Each structure stands twice: as structure tokens, then as C-alpha cells.
Structures
1.
Amino acid sequence: MADDMQIDLGVEKVTKKFKDFTAVKAVSFEVEQGRFFSILGPSGCGKTTLLRMIAGLAEPDNGRITIRGLNMAGIPPNKRPANLVFQHLALFPMMNVADNIAFGLQRRGEKKATVFKKVSAILERVDLPGFEKKKIHELSGGQKQRVAIARCLVLEPAVLLLDEPLGALDLKLREQMKVELKKLQAKVGTTFVYITHDQSEALVMSDQVAVMNKGHFEQLDTPKNLYNRPATPFVARFVGDNNIWSGHIRDRDNNTCRFETPDGNVFHISGDQPWRNGAAVDLFLRPEAMIIQPDPAHTGLNRFEAHIRSLLFDGANSRIIATPKNSDRELLVALPQNRQHDDLCPGDIVEIGWDKSSGICFATETETSP
């Protein structure tokens, strides 16, 4: 981290308990100025509790929260340099757009001319110029999102907190708003801290993502590293799709291990971890890492034959479900868009190949890490 980079948000060993249940367990992280930072995790993992503590809606039992170096202990929500956008936006339906955005400024006691100038300026920044007199019911879902964000940004917070703000939108609008929010954050330069259970939202928009599980961070990394180099089995399962084979390390030769499944398949995998012979491991392999009917000239691939169970057409995300010979394990295999596979049918036997560097292994739950 560069020495001259300002830290807008610091969270140090923050813990929150509810009776005997620990919702957040000694979580620590920093968010640099101007970053889009996401906390990704399933329902009940503690991410909303963590966001509420940053916003001042709940106090941590232990630990410290700082915003631009100032300790937030005991400071109420309305006095913190952070604003929160809720999933359901909480816009005032009886007010027009300008009055919604001006609400916080008026409560601060700012002059009418200043309020008018700031509202007009922020509407320009969120690409809604001239919307001052529009009623809330006249806006589209995406426009309402931008008004809710503008209402917070006009107060010039150090950090904008967003609690699953796209959750109430339909799928197509949600896909559109992911791009819009990313562009908006880059344009305004405000630090965003975004809470979501949707991995696509986190990966598309964020500079950094923390994957949260059972009150703690499993991994904090760039979206690319989370996807390509998950640090734990939970991250490998939660971020993207993965096929999982259970088996053991048969033997190794320099940086290559031979992995054997209970049904007799033997694969070569990169041995960048010092697995001992006989170690019980789970092999994780992405659907897009597998090649259907690979070129025979492409040597060095792991290869096996599989029965096609079914084809799942989903445009660019089309896949097949296949089972290796002598196995009942179902695998998801992506259909690449640069090749036609119209001749594939359920019941066909196909060869599938994959490179040894594509698989990632973790010790099984009953196996002690070496």
C-alpha cells in the first residue's frame, strides 16, 4: 500500500455478539480513498451487521472503526462522514426529486441558494440533469437508485455505504445497474463500501472484495484473484461455479501430482503445495476449464470420456451436464462460444480435456492440512 494513499475507512478487530451468537468475529480491513470495496457473503454471514456498525446504527463490542483517521466510537449516525443507501431506498414519495436530495442539506441549515446549487450539481453528476421537479413515481427503477445515491452524495460523505441496493430490481435492470454504479463511482470518486450476496455484482464492480462467512473474512482480494486463486474451499464454492472431485494424492514428480478418484480416474495437477502421498484432497475445476473434444495434437491435457446427460441452453452461458465413464458424478462443462456444438445430444460419449494448471486442490475437511 502506498504511503501517501489516504485510508477512508479502517476497521480493526471489530466484534459484535448477540447473546451467545457472534455475528462478526474480529474483522479487520482498510479501504483506500476512491475505492469500490465490496463485502460478499451468504445471508446470515454478518455482512449487514458489519455495515450497520460502520454506519453507527450498532456499536461494536470490541475493536475500532475509523473514518479518515477519526475514531467513530460513540459518534451517532447523523454525525458520521458516512451515508447509507438501503435496499428499498427510503425515498419520500410525497416529495419531488429535488426535495428528496435537498432533505439532508436543509436539515443542516444550509442556505436555499446553496441547496439549489448543490442539488443541480449532483443531478448532473448522476446523469439526471433537469429531473428536479419529477415525482418519485414517475422515475424508473434505475433512476430511483441514482436519486437515492445522489441524496447521500450531496452531503459529501467520506464513505458511501450501500446495503444490497440492487436486490429489489428485476434481473435485466440489475445487470444494467451494475455497470451504471461502477461508472458512477469512478466518475464521482467517492469511496463505496458495498454489501451483497450476489457474486456477479461484487466481481463486476469492485476494486477489492472481501468474502465473508460465519462472521469472518475468508479472503480479501481482487475479483480476479478471488476467481482464479481462491484461498479456501468456501471461496472456491461461493465465487463462481466449480466441479468438485474427492480423491487422494497418489504420488508426485517435481511440481506435478497425480490425483486419483475413487472411480479410478487419474489426473495430473500442478503440485504447488507439498501434498504428501495418500493425502485426501478435493479437486476444484471450473466448467469453462474443460474442453469438449480437444484437438488430439494438444498434448499434455488430462483426458477422460464422459456421457452427456443433458444440455442446458442459456445463450453465452450454455453448458452440458456429463458424467465420467464408470462414475455417477455429474459435471458442468461450459460450451465455448467460438465453436459450434449443435451435434451434441444427450447419451453421446465425448472426450473432455483440461490442463493440469486449471485444477485447485484443498485438503478435505477430515484431512489435516500439511
Note: Residues 171-188 form the longest helix (18 residues).
2.
Amino acid sequence: MKRSLGVLVFAAFAMSAADKPDPAAAGMDAARLARIPKRMQEFVDAGKAAGIVTLVARHGRVASLDAVGFQELESRTPMKVDTIFRIASLTKPVTCAGMMILVDEGRVSVLDPVEKYIPEFKNQKVSACSPAEGCTSVSPKRPVNILDLMTHTSGLPGSAPAGSGPAAATLAEQAAAGGKLALLFEPGTAWNYSNIGYIALGRIIEVVSKKPFDEFMAEHVFGPLGMKDTMFFPPDDRRARIAAVYSDENGTLKRARQVETQTGPRIPAPQGGLFSTAPDLLRFNQMILNKGWLDGRRVLSAAASEMMGTSMTGGMKAGFAPGAGHGLGYEVIREARGTWRYNSVGTLVKGGAYRTYEFIDPAKDLIGIILLQRTNGGGDVADEINAFLAMAAAAIEKQ
């Protein structure tokens, strides 16, 4: 697949974990790409991560796909390129794609008020502090809309305060509880990362499609894209491939079993509940880069995929990396200050809580994915992520 600035000639794209990477076809330097797993192994040897999977693709071809370290330290199970990861907030762009499918079908508008689909969002109030601090709550100038949810500009808190209500048994109950919380600011005027907003998005998909959220996503996203290892609830035959999660405790990796053994109702989490692999995530991100196409099949309209990669947050502080604004699910590098990891302006980026990360750089026709499982240490600017992004772009040989 060849690309010139602003013009993309689409080719069929097929990817499996067994595909042999072809740096030359991707216009990349094989020797420089080979440095990536060596650098990742250094992080593993230093006890910073149990294991890491990295994938680089360009011009629709896989340039490198590597696994280093261990899927599980205790059993010394090697990390593999098709190991399954808890991708956490990398779920969010996927949820947005589900919503935009409904927009493509004319069944939803991004400017629809959330209360149109979730009645509990009616009569919300704005309160930047608690009544005990002498604050009064006022009605917002306009209701929260779907676009606010996708860009984290709704004013909703990040998560519900502990003890704020009974435990929810369904996605509908979770969304209803979120609608009863006070807003931190007027909708559309500031940015605050909100998992509650994405719970509401998932519920709206259920209401409009009349299907459970996870079933809709499997039917309209995972199935059409061939994401065979992407799901909210892995069956028993996938369990042996799931990477263990660790926390860095004073320089020692300790098993984070509280993450792995979460109990409670079986609720698909639109904000961060997906399990997936590097090859599957490549298929999703390649579809976005291809303006909605993959393997000769349209999943999203060009307009929807372009909107997902457009910063909607103006000059407000947004995102977790310097120079970023926020699109739909993805952060978007909007200024030169954000190119410090060799990302171009216009690059889409997204990180997850367990140090999973992906990027799409349209100007370079480059996609990168790095997956590890650690609960802490650096967030979206963790050392492993910073090194990988820079090294991936540095391996470009030919335009």
C-alpha cells in the first residue's frame, strides 16, 4: 500500500500472529527495528515488566512483531506475540467506533442529549465542590450530549465516589447511577477524564440497538474486523493465554491478583473491559487509518473515522501527554510540543491503565502497539512506551 500526503490508496489487509514481518515492504530499517525487542528486554531484565509485546506496521504491512520476557513470572511461561492482555482504556476508541456505527446508520446524533436515552441524566446539576464547602448547585446551561461523553468534556466525575450508592447489577444500573452525580463544570467547557461517561456510551448503544452492549460490539466490530481474540469475557479456552498483571513495589514486581480476580456481576465495561492481542488491535487501528475500510469491507464511514481522529477540545488542557487534544476515544497530537516521541501532528494515541498503548500516525502511515501488564509506573509516558514510540518512528527508512 502506497501513500502520499492526504491520499491513501487502499489495499487488502490481512494479519495473523503467524504472519512474517516484512520491514522492506513497510519501508523500514530491519536493523533499527531489531533494536526494539532488545530495548524491551532491558526493561524486563531490570525488573520493570514481566514481559512485553510490540508491533509496528506501516503501509499496511507488519514491519515487526516481537515478544520478550514472560506472560507469567511464577511459571516462567514465555510471552508470546498472541498473548491476550487486559487492554483497559484501549477499549474506549472501540466503544466510540460502536457509537459511530449507529451515527452512520442515522439512529443517533453526537449532539443528542444523553437524557434522551438515559432518563436519569435529566435535571443534572453543576457543582464544583460539596455543599459542606458552601457551594450551591445550579442547572447547566445545556444538557450533557454524546459528544461530551466521547471527548471527556461532559463534566462528569472520573468515577463514582465510594459508597455513593448500591452496587449495580447491570450496565443500565451503572449508567443510571452516573446520571445522578453532580457535574464538575459546564458541559463542553473543560476536560476531565471520565469512565462514567463511557459507561453511559455503552448503555446508549444498548438502548438504541436493543442488544446487550457486548453482543452489539461482537456483531458490528469484532466479527467484521476478524478480531478473533477480542472480547469482554474470555472463555476457558483462552484463559491460558492471558498475561498476568503485576505491580511495581519498590523495584520488585508483585502479582496484582486483585485485578485478575475481580468478582461481582458480569457487566461488560465500555470504559475499559476488553481483552485483546496486538494482532487484533492492529486490525482495529488499521481500519481507522484506512478511513473505515479493512480487507475490502467498510466497517465505519470515512466521515466517522476522520471524526474519531480529530481533536474536539480546542485549546483546553486535555489528555495525558504534552501537546495532546482529545478526539473520540483517542487523544490527538495537536501541536509541535506533542511530537517529542517523534509522533507527527495529527497522530492518534491511546493508553490503558496497565501500560497498554497504541498510536496511529497518518502522516507516516505508521501504527504502533505496545502491551505489558503493570498497574503503576509512568502512565502514558512510561519509559517503555516513550522508548517504543521513538524507536518505531526512528526505524522509518523510505517514505
Note: The first strand starts at residue 3 and ends at 4.
3.
Amino acid sequence: MREALLWEPDGERVHCLLCPHDCRIAVGGRGICGVRENDAGMLRPLTYGLVSSVAVDPIEKKPVFHYRPGTEVLSVGSVGCSMRCGHCQNWNISRARPESNDGLQYLGPDALVALARERSCPGVAFTYNEPVIWIEYVLDAARACKEAGLFTVMVTNGYITPAGLDLIGPWIDVWRVDVKAFDDGTYRELCRARSVHPVLDMAERAKSRWGMHVEVVTNIIPTINDDDDTLRGISSWIVSALGPDTPWHVTRFFPYLDLAHLPPTPIPTLERARAIGVEQGLRFVYLGNVGVRGGEDTVCPACGRVAVRRDGYRIDGWSVERGACAHCGTALGIVEGKHP
């Protein structure tokens, strides 16, 4: 058991400095994430290298559309989370404790790199549960990946302190962040986090300070975050803080867990969200979790031609050259890798 990063003593308690929950943990206790424990006055990470899920996924499944489209990533996750979203699809691992999951297996950083190479994956994604909370492993694994020439992706709720982000900043290429709402009250109700502002601030920092490629996802939930003010607030923030070429994925909610009483998101609501995003100046707004024809295509904002045609997670049309529309040369903000 190693010592955790980013903490300080607080009498007999320890003060965790990793995320904005600012946990002060008594001896034998754990932080809100459930995986960082005060062991006799020292903070220890309980899940270093312990993997609950590992798979080869299209990068589009994250979803990430403008970074290495058409490539596959080795996706890896553990257990625990810094939020407790009432509609979490991965609740069986996000709400699990390390000692209660007998499916956990150890996968060290070097073994992770070797597995990615074995599966011919040019990149690794830290995903499935919240990757911030096992930052010690993410740091070591991401460093090993970068040294081996692999790119790295964080699929995250974005709830991290500046110190935490700056620790992994040099080693992460993509920050795929959920923005679940645009006000603190909804964040407290929906995911038991005190404020949306750290999520917004760190997404901006990821791009401006560390040069990460950033994409934003908002799962549109009826009666909770589907009002015009929320959608307008999120999309206008993306334009001003991250830039108009930043992809915004507005995805369909399905009834689940604590929110099983709500209906699925109507498709017209998603289309309205896309229209609002475009009105605010976003050039690429995608409809997720639905089979709307063209909803996930990348369309050139200048000439209107389809630059990337998508069928589910598969790319079946490609008209991009050096990150720009092959028809008219307009920059699309796409980082190319091995395209189809």
C-alpha cells in the first residue's frame, strides 16, 4: 500500500487535496470517493492498479469525435466515484468499494502499455468509473503511455482541483468532460457535488494551460437540465471558454436507478439543444444515444458538406485532409490519426 498524492495532515485527520469535496478524513475513514483512506494518519489510495473493466473501444464511444477519429483505445477503469449521480449507468462499479468487488485484477502501468500494444491500440482511455480518484495510477500509467508513444484520454466528471489537474496535465492528451448542468443547485441535486464551477474552471485550464483536446458531454434529463437557460448557458460557456470548434455532445437520457421515474429524453429536445448550441456559436453539436440520421456526422460549417459520416461508432465516410474539410479547406478542429 503506497502513500497517496495530494494530501496534508489535519490533526489526527487527513485533508485530501485532490478534488473540490475537500474531504477531511478521520482515522480509518474514507473520502466521499470511497477509495482514499486515512490509515493511521496517512492517506492511502486503495485502488492503485486495480482494474474492474478493460476493453478495446472505438474512440467515438467515449464519445470523442475530433481526436484521432477511427482509432481504437484500450479503455480501463476501477471502482468508486467522486459524485453520486442518480442516473449512473455504471453504478455497480462507481458505487462499489474495493473490498466488495472480487472481480478486481491488478494491471500495472507497464502491463497496461504492453496490453495496448498487443491489441494494436494507439491510445489508452481512463474511463468507466471516475479516473481522477485513482490519480496515482493514472499519473504513472499515463506517463508510461506517453513514453511508449501512446495517446491518453480522460473520460471524467471534471471534479478536480488545480493541483490535481496540474499533476497529470503533462501526460493527458484528451479531456472528455461531463457538464451535467449550469448551476450549483442542480449539481447538488443530481450528483451531490457542491458546485459546477470547478468543472468549468478545470476544463478551461486543461485546454489553456495544458493544451489538451477538450470535448464536452451533457446528458439531457427531462425536468432537470433540459430548460433553455441551462442549454444556452452551457453552450455559450463552451464558445467563450473553450472555443466554437469544441464538440458538444448532447445525449439522450434513459430512465435508470434513482431517476427511473423520468421519461427518456424526447428527440425534439435534443434537436432543440443542438439548435441552441448553434445559435450560441458552436460549430459542432452532436446528438448521442439516438439513431437520428446525421446526428453524429461532422458537417463543414462553411460549405455544408459532410466531412465525417458516422454510423454508430463506425466511420463510413471521410472527407478530411490535415484536419480540414477536403471540399473547401475550412479547419474543422480535428486531430487526425489513423483515419478509415
Note: The chain has eight helices and 20 strands.
4.
Amino acid sequence: MKALIELFWFKYSQLQHAVKTGNEKLVSMLDREIEPALVAIMQKEACDTSELRSQFRFVVDLLREEADDRTCVLRQAHNLKLLLDRYFGTDETAAPFGIGPMAEAARPVPAPRVIEDGLLNEAILDSLPDRVAVVTTDYRYLYSNPLNAERLAEKPIDLVGRHIAEFIGAQRFEGRVKRHLDRCFAGEVIEYDYVSPRRGNATIRCRMTPCLSAAGNVLGAILVLQDVLETRDPMAA
């Protein structure tokens, strides 16, 4: 598995360089070679927990690299779903890792994790107490933790690639959220409160932090949504 993944990233970096330098002949050649390298990784069945994690991490890293290309994001989200189904699906679809003690020990990495100084961090667990999402610069979900997806009546994987206006409405998106996201994409940390009708007019605090690649480029925004607990004077009537 390691050798296959290293081969892919070697070809991927060559392709990026060829595109940047305008070497069309090399781009064409590498385009033909990189697809079989990707297919080889996706088709290989992990033989132990380490390979299992490497395979999931590879797809997550590729999602992150191609975050600006919606088509690529959707494709990698599909690949991620295939891996989840293979190893952790039903008894009929799961491979040996889908059942038994090994499945309990091996946990997949279903999406980029967050939050440390704006960097995607795969060490943070999905069980964060707050709603967390990563939105790309074209306003589409790159990641959602289970709590946020549950509030939207979706599965985390099914949110990837979908525009946030689909869930909050075009009016609210254009009237408020878009301008906050644009400021966040420009490097600001934004925090504001809003009232959520779907939560019975509960007050929600939204914090937006620029989401950065390892190279320091802005991939999008990390959104953390928290219920605001109003404090009342116990002596008040």
C-alpha cells in the first residue's frame, strides 16, 4: 500500500509541475499514468490496520489537495464512501475488517478533521461537542462532523460538495452568510450570533476561521456552531 501511495504522489507532483510549466506532452502522458495509479490504490484491499488507515488518509489528502475542483471533490467523496462500505458496511458488502474485533480497533478517517490554527487536523475526533464544518471558497461543504450533519438531517459524507445555500436558504446565504465567509476567506476570524428558526428560535454562535493548507493557502473556512446559553439573574422575577 505504501509503495502504491508514494508512486501516486510522485506522479501527481510531476503532473502539477508539468501543468505549471505548460508542458502539454508531459501532462498528456502523466494523465494516462495517474489514473491507473489511483485505481490500484482504491482496488487494493488492506491487509492490516495500518494499511487501512493509510488508504483512508490517502483519500482525505487527495480531497484536501483538490478542494477547489467540485468534480474532483465529488469523485473523492464517492471513493471514500466505497471504502467505508467495503470495510464498515453491511455483512453482505463488508470485507473482513467490516466485522469482528478488528473492526472495533480500526476506525476509518471519513473526512478532513479540524481545528488547530486553521489547519485540517486528522487527529481530532468526529465526536466534538459542537457542530463543525469546513466550507470551501466556492461555498460547498468539504467536511461536516456527525453532529452538524445530524442537525441538517444528512450523513456527513452526503454533504460533501453540496452548496450551503441548499441548507440555509438563498436569502440568508446572500443576505448575511456569504459576506461573512468572504471576509473569512480573506483571512479574518469572524464570530457572530444568529437566531435559528429550525431550533425553535434558539440563539446560535457561529465562529469562522480560515482553513489553511500545509503551504498556508486558504482552502476555505472552518465553521464552529455553538448553542448560546443565556445567563439569567437567579433573583429576577
Note: Residues 90-123, 231-237 have pLDDT under 50 and may be disordered.
